[in-house]
Design a protein that fits this description.
4 strands; four-stranded parallel β-sheet; 7 helices; about 220 residues; binds 3-Dehydrosphinganine; Rossmann fold; 3-dehydrosphinganine reductase
């Protein structure tokens, strides 16, 4: 609450990632990541939405997932499920909170160039950095603007670059489209582009596996 007033627009941005290799990570990292990214968003949304509903305040709730809430990638096995969970919560609440005049949105940014990103890069496996390197990243200011303009257009799923549009349109499930025509065209591009990219990414993982095996046999 700000000055005793109930917020009309809620943004659930807090989150982090603890990248690492599945067989090398401790299960506590999985629990910590889920606690911060998913339960952190859930607790805040639950408190705030109850205040909004109980006081008849209408507005919006915007969750921040990630491109990695749309597909999975090596090194992010502790993080991807947390962002799928956030996306799942957003979808369920989109359906439910319309009953109170509260719109729900989910943002799927790619790399955001924050201090948190520098931090996670310190422990990020080289193979993950290499695959992720295709994406140049965007400043927090650009991302905030993209998020707000998506919100103004009333989009449920908001993406902020061409990569995001492709994965958003190809991983939509039963969520609403933003534009039936352009989303369908983008999805058609993705049907071709994503499998091609996956061949490339999987080849990098196999190369990494061979180099890794060599290290281990020495
Ligand atoms: C269609 C064909 C082209 C595909 C190119 C794909 C390149 C992969 C980019 C992966 C980007 C991951 C962004 C999310 C990062 C994130 O959420 C964490 N850093 C958060 O801490």
């Amino acid at each position: 609450m700000h000055d005793g007033k109930i917020p009309e627009h809620l943004f659930l941005c807090a989150g982090l990632s603890l990248p690492g290799i599945f067989v090398e990570q401790d299960i506590s990292q999985y629990e910590r990541n889920m606690n911060i990214n998913y339960f952190g968003s859930l607790y805040t949304a639950h408190e705030c939405v109850r205040l909004m509903v109980n006081n008849g305040v209408q507005g919006s709730v915007t969750f921040v997932s990630s491109l990695l809430g749309l597909f999975g990638l090596i090194g992010y096995s502790q993080y991807v499920p947390t962002k799928y969970a956030v996306r799942g919560l957003a979808e369920a609440l989109r359906s439910e909170l319309q009953a109170y005049g509260i719109s729900v949105h989910c943002y799927f940014p790619a790399t955001i160039l924050t201090p948190g990103f520098d931090e996670e890069n310190l422990t990020k496996p080289a193979i993950t950095r290499e695959i992720e390197g295709t994406d140049e990243g965007q400043s927090p200011e650009v991302c905030a603007r993209k998020l707000l303009s998506g919100l103004e257009r009333g989009e449920f799923a908001i993406a902020s670059d061409s990569l995001g549009w492709i994965f958003r349109c190809c991983s939509r499930g039963a969520a609403p489209m933003n534009n039936v025509l352009t989303d369908t065209i983008i999805a058609a591009i993705g049907w071709i582009a994503i499998p091609c990219w996956r061949l490339y990414a999987d080849a990098l993982v196999k190369k990494w596996a061979r180099a890794n095996a060599k290290v281990k046999s020495q």
